[in-house]
Amino acid sequence: MLLALDARNGSVSVGFREGGTWLLRRSFGMPQGRSADEYALLFSLTESAIGATSLKSAVDRAILSSVAPALTAPLVAAVASAFGVEARVVGPGLRTGLRIRSDLPQELGSDIVCCAVAARVMIPSRPCIVIDFSDAIVFSAVNSVGDFLGAAIAPGMEVSARGLHESAALLPVVGTSAPLRAIGRNTQASIQSGLYHGFSGLVERLSVLFRIELEEPGFPASAIEILATGRGAGRDMVRSLAPSREVDDLALEGLAIIDSLR
Questions:
Q1: Rounded to whole angstroms, what are the CA distances from 184 to 163, 196, 199?
Q2: 165 phi/psi in degrees, rounded to 5
Q3: What structural domains and CATH numbers belong to the chain?
Q4: How far is CA 109 from the centre of its chain?
Q5: Structural contact between residues 142 and 119, judged by C-beta atoms closer than 8 angstroms
Q6: Cα radius of gyration (the chain)
Q7: Helix locations, 69-156, DSSP H
């Protein structure tokens, strides 16, 4: 059984996979300072959800993507403690099957790599765009031969909502769901409209530009598909940008593909 972990700033997505099927996928909040023993306990609590008599003996390999350096070592230690296996960490030297054509490949986050790996398998022999909604909104471009070409990174809506409150104390922190109307009739509704519709415009504009730059003979901009993933707000923004689809835990899918290359 494979244990895949996608560690971001403040949360970790965990998946248990066997025989090409995800038995369980969960997301845990990961506050700074939590010990490896605490992480190991969280992982072991999934036994009853899966129905496994002993995950410790069932898990025979693990793979980790981490863009939160403070979490990497504790998570590796937690996996060793809970399951007795050494987690492989996605990074330089680990085979991913992805050719990275950006100027500085070493700067590329492992979460972006994993999503691109999954996208090139899910949409083979065609250019595509991945939009990952998390603390940041990351747009990734993959061409028709499966090469990663580059990205655009913007702050996520939740991060922007918190930053607005922290910069202007009289403005409250608001939810990031779609508002009923664009013209807000109170402060909360006004902020909600500015965030949601402003980010909708950002997503639409960058999608248009990415599609234009990804055009190839036989693949017009209008036919380039978008994959939306992530647990942040905004995934619904791509529904009007056909062809597009939403995919849960795309980074975990990429981790499973990378694990198969070992």
A1: 20, 12, 16
A2: -65, -40
A3: 2-89 (3.30.420.40), 125-248 (3.30.420.40)
A4: 11
A5: yes
A6: 19
A7: 69-83, 110-122
Structure tokens given for 133: 């909604």
DSSP secondary structure letter of residue 89: E
Residue 97 CB neighbours (<10 A): 13
Joined together, the tokens standing for residue 215 give: 């055009």
53-72 residue pLDDT tens:
566 778 999 999 999 998 89
Residue 208 identity (one-letter amino acid): V
DSSP state of 174: -
82 three-state secondary structure: helix
Tokens 């499973």 — which residue? Answer: 256
Q: How far is 23 from 240, CA to CA, in rounded Å? A: 32
Give the pLDDT confidence of 130-144 residue by residue, as tens digits.
Answer: 999 999 999 999 999
Q: Which residues are designated catalytic? A: 111
Contact 153, 141 (CB under 8 A): no
pLDDT of residue 230: 92
User: What amino acid is encoded at 195 in this protein?
Assistant: L
* Sign of the dihedral through C-alpha 256, 113, 80, 260: positive
Instruction: Say how far apart CA 3 and CA 9 lie, in whole Å.
Output: 20
Percent of the chain at pLDDT exceeding 90: 74
Distance of CA 151 to the CA centre of its chain: 14
